[in-house]
Design brief:
Length: about 600
């Protein structure tokens, strides 16, 4: 065990984590030159296209140091805030972290939030100043920032460049010298933490774990403590560029387990694996529960594919533990799922992965939350979609969920953040300066305003610095109304929303304008209306495409032209009564882009 080191790489977006991981793999000869490609660990098509890391990737390297061979387990993590749950899971499986800072950009928001995640798990932090070869690098200034942030010595900071391969040996030596070896008792009953899992259509579910105590041998009978399921360890091994089967995985190491598990529900990330005949007394304390920031409905375009979509969601949840979902129904779209995401990018990625990896075509609806209504018979009803809302004359009052939000930000951005929160009907409860630069703001906010684009806006106005944490604070009475959207007098269930009365007019107007741009023109006129109950509050019209019926009338009496136009008008009217409007997927997403 003394020759094992488990570490991850954490940093802000685009500070060079995946490129540095490439150099470490090359330097330790884990990957031959023939197999090498840029951002080697980003193996999903989406990651390659967008140039971002979405999944944490674990890989094992061996390195000779002073004549001894060391096993290094490296986990490359994402930098985008929407995938911070991946980072927290990787950190739970490590003893050390390389904290990368870009020499031209300095410490940024995710640098700080990932650093606090690592410090809370008592990880040893190795500061690395990356991209020192850039013409715009400011190494001395940035080193001062890092010393202030970490309280380390200037000499502890390793200058490096992932692109040029500068400082790679120093980083590897520092990992071996500074990161502690894993602690654990090889003789104790087996305790292994599941921190990731992947669905393989040929071999079932591959579970990726880190052993805290004990060891696991091929063919052992194991038990998952939270779900209580029992399996045989058909194949175990460690993670190189490809899986390397082993007879035994020792204490402190990271490995994978395949036992032909077919049902996705049986594997929970954060669960503990133990031996069936010699069980551990308690499970390992896993990581924090995931807190969704954006909620939306996902529905299959073809209603017969509901069960396939459920399967796809379960398999996707194995690989993306931050996805939270439960079944729901809608009058217009049939059966689907209400999903919770960590942000707008996360939502986009999930939708794209469903389409690519599982061939599902899905419609994503407007994000919303659950309201409580007390009706005229004094019954309490929970409603999670606008379609379930009773008529206004049957409602005594409506309550909406509120949250207590803690926002930590640099003091420069307090003004814009206060404006944003006031805009969202928030109340400032408290303001505490943590340091001269960092301030904590505590707000009480309606959840309905937060699930939407609050988080994205907060990140935008604070240049990515502000971090948001929240917990539910209960329900409060509020003046909410149901805003219906009608096309040619027909209400469209998927576009309606429950909004605060003060915002209803503005919301309806913007939504109608947006829909007018997105709904394609038909042979007949389309009226787009926003209404509260019977009262129309906004209207836009999509003009009809018309054939030029006057083309053949050159000269002659006006009555001939009028006769042809009247005939066309009658046809349009009849067509409007029977014609139905096709709504493109972009129109459902219009609501997200209203502001």
């Amino acid at each position: 065990m003394k020759n094992i080191r488990n570490f991850c790489i954490i940093a802000h977006i685009d500070h060079g984590k995946s490129t540095l991981a490439d150099r470490l793999l090359e330097f330790t000869k884990t990957v031959s030159n023939r197999d090498m490609q840029a951002q080697l660990l980003d193996n999903m098509d989406l990651e390659r296209e967008r140039g971002i890391t979405i999944k944490s990737h674990a890989i094992q390297m061996t390195y000779l140091y002073k004549g001894e061979e060391f096993t290094l387990n490296l986990i490359d993590t994402p930098g985008h805030v929407d995938f911070s749950y991946e980072v927290s899971r990787s950190i739970a499986a490590c003893e050390g972290a390389l904290l990368l800072v870009d020499a031209s950009q300095g410490t940024e928001a995710q640098t700080i939030s990932n650093l606090y995640l690592a410090i809370n798990h008592n990880l040893t932090i190795i500061p690395v100043l990356n991209k020192v070869d850039l013409p715009g690098a400011r190494p001395e200034e940035i080193k001062d920032e890092m010393v202030d942030l970490l309280g380390c010595d200037r000499d502890d900071i390793i200058p490096a460049s992932g692109k040029e391969g500068i400082g790679i040996r120093e980083i590897l030596d520092a990992i071996i010298e500074r990161v502690p070896a894993p602690v654990g008792d090889p003789e104790a009953p087996l305790q292994a933490l599941i921190f990731d899992s992947v669905f393989n259509s040929y071999r079932g579910i591959e579970v990726i774990f880190r052993i805290k105590n004990g060891s696991i041998k091929k063919g052992d009978k194991v038990k998952f403590m939270n779900t209580g399921k029992e399996y045989f360890a058909d194949e175990i091994g460690t993670l190189g560029l490809v899986q390397i089967p082993k007879q035994v995985v020792e204490c402190g190491d990271v490995g994978y387990l395949i036992s032909g598990i077919k049902v996705a529900k049986e594997v929970k990330v954060g669960d503990t694996i133990t031996h069936l005949n010699r069980q551990a007394s308690e499970s390992i304390v896993g990581f924090s529960e995931v807190k969704p920031m954006v909620f939306a409905g996902i529905y299959p375009v073809d209603t017969t594919e509901f069960e396939e979509l459920r399967d796809a969601m379960e398999k996707l949840q194995l690989n993306d533990a931050a996805l939270v979902w439960e079944p729901e129904t809608s009058a217009a779209l049939g059966f689907g799922f209400r999903c919770g995401f960590l942000g707008m990018l996360h939502m986009e990625i999930v939708q794209e992965r469903l389409e690519r990896e599982f061939d599902m075509t899905v419609i994503t609806t407007v994000p919303s939350v659950q309201f409580r209504i007390t009706n005229t018979k004094d019954q309490l009803i929970n409603i999670s979609a606008p379609s379930e809302m009773p008529e206004p004359n049957l409602i005594n009052w409506i309550e909406e969920p509120y949250i207590n939000a803690q926002i930590i930000t640099k003091s420069d951005y307090i003004g814009p953040i206060l404006t944003l929160c006031m805009d969202k009907r928030g109340m400032l409860k408290n303001q505490v300066y943590l340091t001269a630069e960092r301030v904590e703001l505590q707000f009480r906010l309606p959840l309905a305003e937060v699930v939407f684009d609050f988080f994205d806006k907060l990140k935008t106005i604070s240049k990515g610095y502000a971090s948001l944490d929240y917990d539910l604070a209960g329900y409060e009475e509020s003046d909410m109304v149901k805003l219906d959207v009608m096309l040619n007098g027909e209400p469209v269930d998927a576009l309606s929303a429950i909004v605060h009365r003060t915002k209803a007019y503005e919301w309806g107007k913007k939504l109608c304008e947006k829909l007018r741009e997105l709904i394609p023109r038909q042979m007949f006129e389309i009226a787009i209306q926003a209404a509260i109950g019977q009262k129309i509050i906004a209207r836009e019209t999509v003009k009809a495409m018309r054939k030029d019926v006057l083309a053949k009338c050159y000269g002659g009496d006006i009555s001939r032209k009028r006769k042809l136009l009247e005939k066309q008008k009658k046809g349009k009217k009849r067509m409007r009564q029977v014609g139905n409007v096709e709504i493109p997927q972009e129109a459902f997403m219009a609501v997200l882009k209203i502001n």
